[in-house]
From TrEMBL:
<dbReference type="InterPro" id="IPR047641">
    <property type="entry name" value="ABC_transpr_MalK/UgpC-like"/>
</dbReference>
<keyword id="KW-0813">Transport</keyword>
<comment type="similarity">
    <text>Belongs to the ABC transporter superfamily.</text>
</comment>
<dbReference type="InterPro" id="IPR003439">
    <property type="entry name" value="ABC_transporter-like_ATP-bd"/>
</dbReference>
<keyword id="KW-0472">Membrane</keyword>
<dbReference type="InterPro" id="IPR012340">
    <property type="entry name" value="NA-bd_OB-fold"/>
</dbReference>
<dbReference type="GO" id="GO:0005524">
    <property type="term" value="F:ATP binding"/>
</dbReference>
<dbReference type="InterPro" id="IPR027417">
    <property type="entry name" value="P-loop_NTPase"/>
</dbReference>
<keyword id="KW-0067">ATP-binding</keyword>
<keyword id="KW-1003">Cell membrane</keyword>
<dbReference type="GO" id="GO:0015408">
    <property type="term" value="F:ABC-type ferric iron transporter activity"/>
</dbReference>
<protein>
    <submittedName>
        <fullName>ABC transporter ATP-binding protein</fullName>
    </submittedName>
</protein>
<dbReference type="InterPro" id="IPR040582">
    <property type="entry name" value="OB_MalK-like"/>
</dbReference>
<feature type="domain" description="ABC transporter">
    <location>
        <begin position="4"/>
        <end position="241"/>
    </location>
</feature>
<dbReference type="InterPro" id="IPR003593">
    <property type="entry name" value="AAA+_ATPase"/>
</dbReference>
<dbReference type="Pfam" id="PF17912">
    <property type="entry name" value="OB_MalK"/>
</dbReference>
<dbReference type="InterPro" id="IPR015853">
    <property type="entry name" value="ABC_transpr_FbpC"/>
</dbReference>
Length: 357
């Protein structure tokens, strides 16, 4: 396993890129810790596969370097990088037994049979395939086959990183959560550096210690699930993560105070906001509540979401959502809402306003 460093990394598929939009991957500088569990999360086309292919060596970046434990691997071939990959569709040899499938990467590298046997049994035990070791892989279900792919990634002790590219795509929805929690458990046991690519926030947040959120080829935030929830660095993160996502309202800032629809809104950072940019206030539905005073809103819809109810309200043509506990009293039509100040923040051109600006 290895620490992964991306230094000044950028990639364009065009021969002569000139502006940021020409890059499928904007400049990225990051250190990923040895043994960490990371997720690359973002919508289709944001550059996840491009980044994954650069790390695995299938693609040479137009600029920058990739280091594994401080060794420059930018020009190395994929097989020299000692990476295991688990793809969307399980790659298994149907005619072989489960045992031989798991043993394949080790035998390929000339590992002695007693060591092969020890590793295969260890891994089969971890992924609950011990009972089926002697069965042909052809007879397995999609999740059984994906477990083999997973096992093949884990069986080698010489891998620098295991990369997962949307590995649960073909898994039945009711089995997804099982494999998801299995993956997390496996990471805790083997402590190999893992990178998990997905557009599904639940998968990313359950699996990763740190989530890398991408949008239009740019990394907009790298943070723990809690950081992404509590302090979204960009309105996109606020919106993309959370269910429902963060409320984003246009605002003005005068004398260090934010105003929405002419009414003051208390925030923790408006004092740092500069005029001349597109200013917005962001607050998650979890931090909005009904109150005596505050913004006057009209309630438009109430939906049941298990332990919570999602209340849709409107003010000045804008939607403001609240989460209220199941069973809590909800006003009929008109109400006032207030925001929790330490979780209400101003964004400037999409980015969180901080003291340094
Ligand atoms: N081989 C290629 N040649 C030219 N442009 C490409 C190529 N591969 C990807 N792109 C472009 O680069 C951008 C990033 O694509 P990429 O596949 O990395 O995104 P992604 O987040 O992995 O999307 P998805 O989840 O749909 O796979 C997109 O605009 C895409 O059209």
């Amino acid at each position: 396993m290895a620490k992964i460093t991306l230094k000044g990394l950028r990639h364009s598929y065009m021969p002569n890129p000139s502006k940021p939009a020409d890059y499928a991957l904007q400049e990225l500088n990051v250190d990923w810790e040895d043994g960490g569990a990371y997720a690359l999360l973002g919508p289709s086309g944001c550059g996840k596969t491009t980044l994954l292919n650069i790390i695995s060596g299938l693609l040479t970046p137009s600029h920058g370097e990739i280091l594994f434990d401080d060794e420059d691997v930018t020009r190395m071939q994929p097989d020299e990088r000692h990476i295991a990959q688990v793809f969307q569709f399980p790659v298994v040899y149907d005619t072989m037994t489960v045992y031989d499938n798991l043993a394949f990467p080790l035998r390929n590298r000339g590992v002695p049979e007693p060591e092969v046997d020890k590793r295969v049994r260890e891994i089969a035990d971890m992924i609950d395939l011990t009972e089926t070791l002697q069965n042909r892989a052809a007879g397995l279900t999609a999740d059984g086959k994906q477990k083999i792919s997973l096992g093949r990634g884990l069986v080698r002790s010489d891998v620098n990183v295991i990369m997962f590219d949307e590995p649960l795509t073909v898994i039945d929805p009711h089995l997804k959560w099982q494999l998801r929690s299995k993956l997390k458990e496996l990471h805790q046991r083997v402590k190999t550096t893992m990178i998990y690519v997905t557009h599904d926030q639940t998968e990313a947040l359950t699996f990763a210690d740190k989530v890398v959120v991408m949008k239009d080829g740019q990394v907009v935030q790298i943070g723990t699930p809690v950081e992404l929830f509590e302090r979204p660095q960009h309105t996109f993160v606020g919106h993309f993560i959370g269910s429902p996502g963060m409320n984003v309202l246009p605002c003005e800032v005068r004398g260090g105070q934010a105003f929405f629809e002419g009414e003051p809104v208390a925030t923790w950072n408006a004092v740092h906001a500069k005029e001349g940019a597109k200013l917005e206030v962001g607050v998650r539905p979890e931090f909005v509540s009904f109150s005596e005073k505050g913004l006057a809103v009209e309630i438009t819809k109430v939906s049941d979401a298990g332990r919570f109810q999602i209340v849709d309200t409107r003010k000045g043509g804008r939607s403001i959502k609240l989460l209220v506990p199941d069973g809590a009293e909800i006003p009929e039509k008109h109400a006032h809402v207030s925001f929790k100040t330490d979780h209400t923040q101003v964004y400037s051109d999409g980015w969180l306003v901080t003291g340094g600006e």
